[in-house]
Fold each of these.
Amino acid sequence: MKKKVVSALLCVSMVAASLVGCGDKTADTTTESATETTEETTEATEETAEEAAPAGDATAGQVYWLNFKPEADEALQQIAEEYTTETGVPVKVVTAASGTYESTLTAEMDKSQAPTLFVVGNQAAVKTWQDYCLDLKGTDIYNELTTDDFTLYNADGKACSIGYCYESFGIITNKKLLEQAGHSVDEITNFETLKAVAEDIHARADELGFDAFTSSGMDDSSSWRFSGHLANMPLYYEAKADNWTECPAEIKGTYMDLFKNIWDLYINNSSVDKTTLATGGYDAEAEFKDGKAVFFQNGTWEYGALSEAWADEDLAMIPIYCGAEGEENAGLCSGTENCWAVNANASADDQAATIAFMKWLVTSESGTKMMAEQFGEIPYKGAAENGNVFFQDAARLIDEGKYTVEWTFSYTPNVNDWRAGVVAAMNQYDAGGSWDDVVTAFTAGWAAQYKAANE
Amino acid sequence: MTRPIIFEKIGRAIYMKKMKNSNSAVNSTMITRPIARCFPIFLLPTVAAFFIGFVYPFIKGMYLSLCSFTTTSDAKFVGFSNYIKAAQDATFVHAFWYTALYAVVSLIFINVIAFFLAFLLTQGIKGTSIYRTVFFMPNLIGGIVLGYIWSMIFDGILSRYGTNILMETRYGFWGLIILMCWQQIGYMMIIYIAGLQAIPEDMIEAARIDGATRMQTLFHVTLPNVMSSITICMFLSLTNGFKLFDQNLALTGGQPFKWAEDGTVVKTTEMLALNIYNTFYGQSSSARGVAQAKAVVFFILVAVISLVQLSATKSKEVQQ
């Protein structure tokens, strides 16, 4: 009898426990179906009215921005607060840790309070997230754009994400130190001249007290500068020669010699032993700030940090010269991976609130000011004047009629895996391995990732 | 004034019961039954946590392995195609054999050294408890931190020879073995010490009187008596070896890579768990279902291997 009671109670408690689990799930599904219905109705209105702007009430919704750039977090929190005091609409900004955006987004999208505003920065991300992107064409924010160059469309022509800023990268140069070494930026016009200057400085590093290049660390905090940004050089010239219009299934690696040229220059003309680059632990930004090196390959976003240590007139950004034909006419590498997407599964109110917030960021005085400071140039009609010298350099080069090196790397299939392969091969090369492995990682790696991504 | 009356009632009830059964008061069913009746209240939190934290995710994970999905709440059923892709994935097969080799080697090293240390530290050497504490301490440090610390240590040494741990598969392999030995030996040692201390002194004494050598005592008296500790330690180090993730990620992250003829990248020091993680996040969303299928295969492998190991060592245990 006693045993029967015990087992009966045990059953009851088990069922109770599983009901807790089920209860959770039912709640989940109800919210899901609820959002689905709203989504469907929104879609329906879109189709009938030919207007993508969600019909929700912007003041009733709320904004949740899953931010992509850790360095902008502080300013975004401030601006979110400011917007909330001004309009009463709650804005939550969460920043994913460096290199974890994809996993953070995956986790956050599963929550009932999913991000309403997130970043879909390249074609691969469009492929992954297209079902979660609201078609932005025709929305208030879309109409503020000055160019469609940074808008990412999926195969069906849906405007999945729009650029909220564009950026440039190149070789950041300390003009003051360069002059101390007896050179000037004007004499650097192509790879040969860059090489001559860098090798001269490196040879006299002990006497000068600084070296040519900052460390080229290959750990996760820094390797993207090379496997992503520097690798753009051979990709760009190949794309230009072969007229890419979409991600090719295979690449030839025609311009890998250029990549080798510039990489050799970086690693052989720095105070850091190249065999130690693989495991890194270096801080190139700090080296540049401390005046330990003249050249530092990075982007316009570094301006904020570097201007703390150096005056505007000491800083310049020059194109990455790597030995390409006619590169005397090259400008900086400009493009963007910062593209806003609005969550298609969010409620209509939240979507409206999000779009209103985006519009405020690119039209209001404090919004545009923050955008200019944190993100640089923004492709919107109401953009504020920008004090960032690196952007001024980019603009000056464009005015001089130099060609912009586009961000061809945004075609990269399975970008994380492909870059990891390139980094591993470059590490082998630094330690005395063969450059052929880097070429294999580049070309065979591309083909394999393309196959994996398009299965 | 209700309380005293209740106490009085209970007291009387206990008294009556005592008179009737002449049991001791504390064991009286009059006291234990009300408490026993409430057991679901005490059980519920654990059972609920077990369901929410284990059973539900486990079943959902099984289901997701048959789906194509980007986020887990929004999955499309596709059948067994994920399993077929997982089986065809050369990197997964490589990761399996690499992990198996690693698990076996680490199992041997960790257990032999841990047993040896435990044996030494039960011989009554001075400062035994300090040694035990010191050996146990590495176990308190998290895997990621350990991975980075040891990569610095290894690189500090290897840089003298112009290389580093990311350059060769064998460096990564042995590096990980050293790291895990350092971390796990102390823990296993504690279990072995408990086992060794549980051996009745008279058994050892009897063996000595019978003229057994130290070696004979070790192999014929001590070892059979600590078989239960050996079972648990082997189980722990085998499953730890298979499930290893943090240390693998932080120490080498799979480097160095090799390119197969068809361009497939084989991350030569990538173990199963890291392979699953990289499949899930490193590739496009079409690979997420495949990663989930790999995870289910991984679970079955670890479960089967550890069950086989358990029954194999259990059969050698003796009853004291």
Amino acid sequence: MRILISIILTIFIGFNIAKADIKVVTTYPYIASIVKEIVKNKATVESLAEGNLDPHFIVPKPSLVVKLRNADLIIINGAGLEIGWLLPLINQASNPKINPSSSGFLDLSQFVNLIQKPETVSRSMGDVHPEGNPHFHLDPYNIPVIADVITNKLCRLDVSNCKFYESNNTDFKERWKKKLKEWNEKLSILKGKKVVGYHKLFDYFIERYNLNLIGTLEPLPGIPPNAKHTENLINIAKSQGLDYIFQDVYHSQKPAKFLAEKTGVRMIILPHDVGSIPEVKDIFGLFDEIVRRLTQ
Amino acid sequence: MKKLFFAGLLCITFTASASDDIQQLKEELKKQQEIINQLQEKVKELQKQQEITEETKQKLNQLHQSQIDKLLSNPFSQAKFVPDISLIMDFSYVSRNLTDVTYKAVNIPGFNHGLFHSHGGNSEAPYNAERGFNFNYSELYISQAVDPYFDLVGIFHLGEGSFEIDEGYFRTKSLPFNLQLKGGKFYSKFGRLNEQHHHVWDFVDAPLIYRAVFGEHNLLEKGAQLTWLAPTPFYLMFGVEVFQGDNENNFNRNGFLVPNTNPINTTPTDYLKISDTKKPNLYTFFIKPSFDIGNLSILGGFSYAEGKTRIDHLEDETPHALTGTTKIYGLDLTVRYSIDSYRYITWQSEYIHRNFDGVRYGYDNANNLITSFLDKKQAGFYSQLVYKFDQRWRVGARYDLINKNDVFVNNTDSNQPDNLYKYSFMIDFLPSEFSRIRLQYNCDRSLFLDGERKPNNEIILQFNMAIGAHGAHGF
């Protein structure tokens, strides 16, 4: 028993020699990328989910509990996107700093105008989010808002580095503004173009650049495509016209390819998060790549 | 005021255009007059509207004053604090070669007196007990944060004729050093499957070794649990539990009186008093390490449970009782390979070893009390492979084996069968995250009746559905 206690103590001391940096954990890589722009080397930043997977279905592996165990701040997307996986991890981590009611918990969806908020909800409508569409980070205009919120939170948690965070944020937003101008110019050709997506994933982007979503391959959110629904879509596409088929990186490409074949419209695989494809290394890269793929 | 303003405006216009042609001036004047007329009309209109609003206001005021007694408010409503509530139901259709009478009579030799046997008097049937349709349960989950310090969870098991508190516990949220305390009635964290609820199991039924060692309810106890997440770079959880020792197959805690002659056939004249155990009676300990290698997640576990045994079967057809100590060891390993967001392969195995050391009280043919030393060393395992090959489809196979069944009475081997095995195959369809339809085939060779093996082949079609606000499941 004594040996056991001493082993445990050694492990405890060995790994717990206090680190001065605060530790930020984010649910998705895009949030981690924004945080990195703000904290640079003054904090450690880790994402729980990987960018190439369906953000709704992250496996709550015990290894993720380890990341939360000594986190000072958890930043989540919110609006129900983490509903299927995050809470068991927080419960297991037994870290009072990141409980949903604590100061080390930040829900970004609270600070963004959400679209498609349903008046009523029922599970018979599929996997609807009562809070609205949670994929708001795909509107590039929401990114500076998110950066401001994160900076604000970091300033409260780590007062000594606040000035540093604020100047990094200003610098980030300046660079973002320049990029926005470039993207807006390139994307102006998209106005009024008709789109079919797999899931309601790119809706914020579609709304921002005045595209027109005429349907999704999923008959209802979270329900896989079926032949009858796809047939319907083909008819709509043929009668209304269709310009793009947006495909995400994690769903099966079969239904989109089928639609492309039947309508002669190009299927474009779009990254939705940092790390979803190897080319997308940070939040700038995410939109650079989306723009590149849509305009080439 | 407004008119004065317009007059002023007119003045300015007039002086400004004084030097201009008179004709032009007249025209200008005409235009201005028109504008003034229009504005005056507008002002009149506005005044009218103002009057109407005033009138309405007055009317409303009178209304409010006369109805003030009738106006109701609900200042103590707490409707927004409704906890998360969900309901889960399980139905099945069973086709089995053993008749219901035989299925009720069979037992796993050396382990228990049949799947239906109960020691407390409330003999609840196991799930999928009858051929044909079964309504297995309806389970009500209610949970919410109590305050910043505790969560409270209640899980109520509603059978056709029963209402049971399946689990009811609190859990701390703000202990330091990654400690967590749980108290109430709950499933022990012993092993891998024990803590999980029926609706998240990969198969319709519990593995053979679980049913043999723990009975139909697994290790469900009243007590407290303390877990600690060690500050290691990989997942390492330690935990201890202290329980009353409710498990009827292994522990119990209340003493009893052993009659000196067979109580069924004779009237006993004297009793041997067996005292209660110390309470709480059951202690468990577990370590669970986990780490990832790429897309491969590995979770292991070592568990240990120890408690005193008080098993009272003195009212049975063949009256007997046990006292002693039971120690249970468990080893588990789960390996999950994630192919993508929707597909994975998991391999899960558990090995459980039970050691009982104590005394058996029974009666001979002459109805006299016989006290014998009883020593049981029993062990078995299950190993299962589940493949989710599509967003909505999974297949799985499980192999169960009890390969150690040494029961020594007064140091003499009672030669219990030690090759009890079972094969199971399942396929399930998940229309959504909230519904499951599963078909399972069992080839069960673990059941005996009067010393003779009764092969049991069964097909079970299961429907499991959930409504309401049901929290996410862990790994």
